[in-house]
Structures are given as C-alpha cells and as structure tokens.
Fold these 2 entries.
Entry 1:
Amino acid sequence: DAKENGRNRRSFFEANMEDHVQSKDKLSRELRMALKNDELTLAYQPQSDTAAQRIVSVEALARWTKEDGTVVSPAQFIPVAEETGLINELGLWVLNKACAKAHDWPDVVMSVNVSPNQFKHPRFVEKVMAILATNNLAPQRLEIEVTESVFAGRNDTVLKSLRRLKNLGIKVALDDFGSGYSSLSYLRRFPFDTLKVDRDFLSDMDGNPEAEAIIVSIIQLGKALGMTIVAEGIETIEQIRFLQAHGCHRMQGYFISQPLNETDLAKFLEDFKKEHGGDFGREFAFK
Ligand code: C2E
Ligand code: MG
Ligand code: MG
Ligand code: MG
C-alpha cells in the first residue's frame, strides 16, 4: 500500500545519501593520497588575443588520473577539496607548479584558479608572495582567477586581499562572469584586470539574439570599466568572427586549443607563432 511504498522510498533515499557521503569521503581520502604521491598534474589552455592572434596567456587546470587509470574531473574533486579543507594544500601545489613552469614560456601570463575557501585563508596573500619569491617569478606574470562566489557572505577581507594582490602587480580575473548570482556591484567595488565571460553565453549564442545581446553588453561594460575581456568556451569560427567584430580582447576554447600537457603546449606555442605570428590585422585567419 501507499504507506509501505513511502517507507521503501525513504529507505532507498537514505541508502543513496549514505552512498553519496561514503563516495565523497573516499574521494577525499584518495585525493589526499594523490597529492602526497604526486599523482596530480596540470594542463594548460592557451588564451589568444583576438586581433593580434598570438597567445597571451595560459590557464593552468588541475588534472587527476588515479592509479587504475580513472580520470577524475576537477568539477568533481575541487568541490570535495573545498569541503574538506584540502583545497589549501591542493591550491598551493597548483600555484607552485604553475609558477615554476611559467619560466618555460616567458611570453605568456600564467592564470591560476583559486577557490573561495583557499582565497579566504588568512595567509593566502603571503603564501602567494612566498611562492613568487621561491620561483623567482615577476608578479606581472601571474594572474589569479576567482569566481563571483568568493563574494558570498562577509567579504571585506576578500576585497582587502584582492587589493593586496593587485598592488603587488599580480593580475586579478573574475571567472565565469554571468553564470552565478552576478551582481554588477562587484565590478564597482573591485577593479578586476580581466573579465571572463562564462562559456554558457557562448554556447547559447548561435543565432540567439538574446545571448548575443548579452555578450555584446558585457564586452562594452567591461571595456568601459577598463577591463580585458576574455570569452570562454570558443568552439566555432562563427563565434570568433562575432567576437572579432565586437572587439572582444581575448578568447579561450577548444577551437583555439584544448588544455594541453607541458610537451604539447611547448609545441603548440611554437607552431602558433609560425602560423599566426606577425600576422597582425589579418582577419579570420584561424583554421
Ligand atoms: P574554469 O576555470 O572556468 O576553466 C575552464 C573549463 O572549461 C576547463 O574545464 C576547460 O577545460 C573547459 N573548457 C575550455 N574550453 C572549452 C570549450 O571550448 N568547450 C567546453 N565545453 N569546455 C571548455 P576543466 O579543466 O574541467 O575545469 C573545470 C573547472 O574546475 C574550472 O573551470 C575551475 O573552476 C575548476 N578548476 C580546475 N583546475 C582548478 C584548480 O587548480 N584550482 C581550482 N580552485 N579550481 C580548478
Ligand atoms: Mg578559470
Ligand atoms: Mg571559467
Ligand atoms: Mg567554468
């Protein structure tokens, strides 16, 4: 009867909850070991200037392949690291590795993602300074990406840390703009160097006048505020043409390149220079 069904449904739900908690627990334990055993790596995704067609920056993205070959996506393990506090250790590992590698590619800025809990660590800025010093990297070579969620809750210390980073000469980017609880007041309260337009707008773009209007306004708004605008998730030549026509400064996405390992990135940077270098102003030359 109905009551019986209700009870079954509840126990089914509870069992699932337990599974969920257990797998998260397990993932977190495995992640801790992975960090210790050096099983994490970084992939680097190139970001191109729209007009000049040169690679101006690369975004470091964490990668984890388990011993048995299973790939765990950062969309899965970063939230777990955030919840368990492991994000501080993980994030410092990423920063350190990215800053060390930055010397291999002197022409590009190294962008690193920082999660809210990592960013809110009381000694975060000091740790970044220490990592730059250890790796002898100029602060201008580093960009820190935060998302709007870093502003949730009390955020006076967040603003203070953002200012400190900027005063040190580190670039600061607002990532995934427009995807969360966007508020334009963040843009007024802190002068981000870079605004990354969330790839949802770009995937919605094709022939959709609303999505196109939003992209165009974000570009204009960002420009009026003196920011560098980056469009994320570029997958088609039509998107590139659109962004070039509307003066978007930079773009990142599979059409330009997937995230690459160190060896492939070195090769990509060289090839890209050969194909596009010095071709300033030539339109639509991406192929
Ligand atoms: P994100 O910072 O917005 O990074 C961009 C994500 O979009 C990357 O996914 C990238 O592979 C993907 N992407 C780039 N171009 C395209 C495209 O043309 N089409 C599509 N469909 N996707 C594209 P990934 O590497 O899986 O990372 C997902 C998210 O995980 C990142 O989003 C970032 O929020 C987080 N993440 C990755 N590495 C780190 C890290 O080291 N620290 C922290 N705190 N977060 C990280
Ligand atoms: Mg990012
Ligand atoms: Mg993003
Ligand atoms: Mg994203």
Note: Residues 176 surround magnesium ion (ligand 4) (CB under 6 Å).
Entry 2:
Amino acid sequence: AIQTTFLMVKPDGVKRQLVGEIVDRFERKGFELKGAKLIQITEELAKKHYAEHAERPFFGELVEFITSGPVFAMVWEGENVISVARLMMGATNPAESAPGTIRGDFSTTLSHNVIHGSDSLASAEREIGLFFNENELV
Ligand code: CMP
C-alpha cells in the first residue's frame, strides 16, 4: 500500500553533512519527498517525540542529543515506505546494521545513529503531526 512516513537526519548526521547522501538514497529508491525542513528541536518537542521512551534510563541522554543541534525532518511517500525505509536505515544497534544500510555505512554508536524513522502507521501519523503543518506538505 502507498504510505507516508516521517524520517529525520539526527544532529550527528547533519553535522557530518550526510543530509544530501541520505536524501539521495531515498530519491534513488523511488520514494517521493512530500516535505522537508532543517530545524532546531525544542526540549518540549523532543519529549513528545520520544514519549514512549520516557521511563528508559537513557531518556535524558536521548532528549539532550536530539536537541544538541539542527535536525533535517522529512516526510516521504511510497509503496510500503514505513518498513522499507527502516530496512534502508539498518538496525538500531550499529553492531547489527548491515553494510549498505545508512547506519551500517555511517554509524558506530547506539545513540548517535544518524537517522530516525517511524516504526508503524500509527507512529508515522503521530510524528508527521508533531513536526509538520498541513501547509508544509505537498
Ligand atoms: P531511535 O529508534 O531513532 O529512537 C530511540 C533511540 O534511542 C534509538 O534510535 C537509539 O538511538 C536510542 N537508544 C536506544 N537504546 C539506547 C541506549 N541503551 N542508550 C542510548 N540510546 C539508546
């Protein structure tokens, strides 16, 4: 089915100038960019975005990292884009992310792992709503 998903280059990826490389991979795959912006996330937005991890011991670290510099937030559309984008991102744990995936090619740490992608239809809808207004999407 045609889906939309929320993807975000994290502060480490922006600092390392990987935005173009990452956009390029999803474009070449055949997905369609529906919206994008470079933004500095507020602490309030970070806490909402990561609400499901609120009780985790690393929650503070997560919020601190994602607000440590600008992120590149995107909405992408395409056939099964939610799960396919996650395949292209690779596993969260860099010890398990395969070469050829974004994390497999560009990250060595669990927390600084270059990219975020929604993991389900419900989280895609929620995260797009948190980061984008209707008039920012084509
Ligand atoms: P992501 O899946 O985008 O969202 C949750 C993030 O939590 C995940 O990426 C990791 O970067 C991060 N994370 C998961 N486990 C840990 C951990 N043990 N310590 C620090 N960060 C973690």
Note: DSSP finds seven helices and four strands in the chain.
